[in-house]
Design brief:
Layout (H helix, E strand, L loop, with lengths): L9 H13 L4 H14 L20 H10 L13 H16 L3
Length: 102
Amino acid sequence: MVASVRAVPESDFETWVSRQLKAGGDLGKQTYEGACGPCHGLTGKGLIGPPLEGNATLAQARRLIQLLENGRNAMPPVGRGWDERQLNALVAYVQEEFASGG
């Protein structure tokens, strides 16, 4: 999977997030696909990173947020610097998709 990153000023990012939320955009899914999918697979079955299905950390939002912000073992801190909206959107998405077997 190839991805690209575009660095923009924080105000531009905030505007984009607001538009996504108003337009019914799925911030959690988009965040997962961009930040988590390359290692855990778009279906959560695992690639470089382990499968997410049945992972106990997913059931505990606070532990999942800590993992995203701080990383652990081979997982980098992909969520460091994300705002609360983005973290919560990702947590809701992965819990819905993968915590109980998707």
